[in-house]
Amino acid sequence: MIDIQTKMTERALELLCLPEGQPSFLLDIGCGSGLSGDFISEEGHYWVGIDISPAMLDAALDRDTEGDLLLGDMGQGVPFRPGSFDGCISISAVQWLCNANKRSDVPARRLYCFFSSLYSALAHGARAVLQLYPENSEQLELITTQATRAGFTGGVVVDFPNSAKAKKFYLCLFSGPSTSLPKGLTESQDADQATELAFTSERAPHKRARRDLLKKSREWVLEKKERRRRQGKEVRPDTQYTGRKRKPRF
Amino acid sequence: MKLLTHNLLSSHVRGVGTRGFPLRLQATEVRINPVEFNPDFVARMIPKVEWAALVQAADTLNLAEVPKEPTEGYEHDETFLRKMHHVLLEVDVLEGTLQCPESGRLFPISRGIPNMLLNDEETET
């Protein structure tokens, strides 16, 4: 457990693209017992952590972490004045905002409160890299929508998209001018595999393309086979017989 | 809680906005922690510091010798940087309270950790 957290912190720091050779001041959302914080300190940076669990923070105190700790709920907003931090990381925490623990909680509102306060708390041009475990694509879309509303640009970087075990999502948010999204890691050197989803206010064009295809037509069959190939499943090669009309008894 | 953190903390009670800074500090237990001196980091934090708030907080804690403002060419003034390093990073408030200047709401500090949890009515919507 400890090793995975440290590896994800390392990858998140890498994606943060902090200026080389100088110490930065970072915010660690959902810092827990300070595992990620320890790695940040080892890299020569300084940090402040927030967590909602007093038990986890007590564990952090026992481990004598270098960063300051705060007991707080990220869904209520991060309580800092504008431009406080050079960057923000979060390991396995942001998806919790999608749970409504009390009847009064509205996930979209909590997400927006979190992202808008984070946007303000970051220095201009600073980044936030949030590793998370989205339950499904709807949840991921809910999260990215609120982040965009708050003013962030960026996208989701997916490492090892074809491995159920190793697959990791990093929401990379930029608060300054748009920069290109880093590439996700893959086992093979497949350059054509799309491992990132950039989001802006553009609509998704490919969804419309699929709707225009007549179901069961040859184009539809070919598109479906292509989709399954992209998912890494085993698919028969396309031939002149693909999607041909069969006898009625079929 | 270090004074650097206190200098950045702002109340997020509903309706308070920018008037939530600075939080009024009251301390009942303070500890001095030796922290490795990093002149680069201190020099980079100086422009971020709100001096009035820092001086006020240092006064509440009865800290001696807090510079009233950054000196000219502070990046190379080691004495100044060491003083700021001590004030910002080595003074640790273990027990006390932070008070929102606008709403009067108290945030307790326990074992060095400020409790910033809000009630439902206080949360910004």
Beta-strand fraction estimate of chain B: 15-25%
Strand neighbour order, sheet with most strands of chain A:
3-2-1-4-5-7-6-8
What is the gyration radius of chain A calculated from CA atoms? 21 Å
| Biggest interface, chains and residue tallies | A-B, 29 and 31 residues
Number of self-contained structural domains of chain A: 1
Main sheet of chain B?
A: 4 strands, antiparallel
Task: Count helical runs of chain B.
Answer: 4
Which class best fits the helix and strand makeup of chain B?
A: alpha+beta
What layout of secondary structure does this protein have?
The complex is a heterodimer of chains A (250) and B (125).
Chain A: H1 2-16, E1 25-29, H2 35-42, E2 46-51, H3 54-62, E3 68-71, E4 85-91, H4 107-121, E5 122-132, H5 137-149, E6 153-159, E7 168-174, E8 196-199, H6 205-212, H7 218-230
Parallel strand pairs in A: 1-2, 1-4, 2-3, 4-5
Antiparallel strand pairs in A: 5-7, 6-7, 6-8
Chain B: H1 3-8, E1 24-32, H2 39-45, H3 51-60, H4 78-90, E2 91-99, E3 106-110, E4 113-114
Antiparallel strand pairs in B: 1-2, 2-3, 3-4
Protein name (chain A): 18S rRNA (guanine-N(7))-methyltransferase
GO biological process, one term (chain A): rRNA (guanine-N7)-methylation
Main location (chain A): cytoplasm
Condensed summary:
The complex is a heterodimer of chains A (250) and B (125). Chain A has one domain: Rossmann fold, CATH 3.40.50.150. Helices cover 32% and strands 20% of the residues of chain A.
Which features would summarize this protein structure in a list?
heterodimer, A: 250 residues, alpha/beta, Rossmann fold, eight-stranded mixed beta sheet, 8 strands, B: 125 residues, alpha+beta, N-terminal domain of TfIIb, four-stranded antiparallel beta sheet, 4 helices
Your description of this structure?
The complex is a heterodimer of chains A (250) and B (125). Chain A has 250 residues and is of the alpha/beta class. Chain A has a single domain, classed as Rossmann fold, CATH 3.40.50. In chain A, 32% of the residues lie in helices and 20% in strands. Chain A is built from seven helices and eight strands; from the N terminus they run αβαβαββαβαβββαα. Chain A has helices at 2-16, 35-42, 54-62, 107-121, 137-149, 205-212, 218-230, and strands at 25-29, 46-51, 68-71, 85-91, 122-132, 153-159, 168-174, 196-199. In chain A, strand 1, helix 2 (35-42) and strand 2 (46-51) form a beta-alpha-beta unit. In chain A, helix 1 packs across helix 2 (35-42) and helix 4 crosses helix 5 (137-149). The longest helix of chain A is centred in the N-terminal third of the chain and has 15 residues, at 2-16. Chain A starts with a helix and ends in a 20-residue tail after the last helix. In chain A, 40% of the residues are buried. The model of chain A is unreliable at 189-195 (pLDDT under 50). Chain B has 125 residues and is an alpha+beta fold. Chain B has one domain (1-115): N-terminal domain of TfIIb. Chain B has four helices and four strands, in the order H-E-H-H-H-E-E-E. Chain B has helices at 3-8, 39-45, 51-60, 78-90, and strands at residues 24-32, 91-99, 106-110, 113-114. Chain B has a four-stranded antiparallel β-sheet with strand order 1-2-3-4. Chain B is globular and about 50 Å long. The chains are: A alpha/beta (250), B alpha+beta (125). The interface between A and B is medium-sized, with 29 and 31 residues. Chain A: One of its GO terms (biological process) is rRNA (guanine-N7)-methylation. Chain A: It catalyses: a guanosine in 18S rRNA + S-adenosyl-L-methionine = an N(7)-methylguanosine in 18S rRNA + S-adenosyl-L-homocysteine. Chain A: Keywords: Cytoplasm, Methyltransferase, Nucleus, S-adenosyl-L-methionine, Transferase.
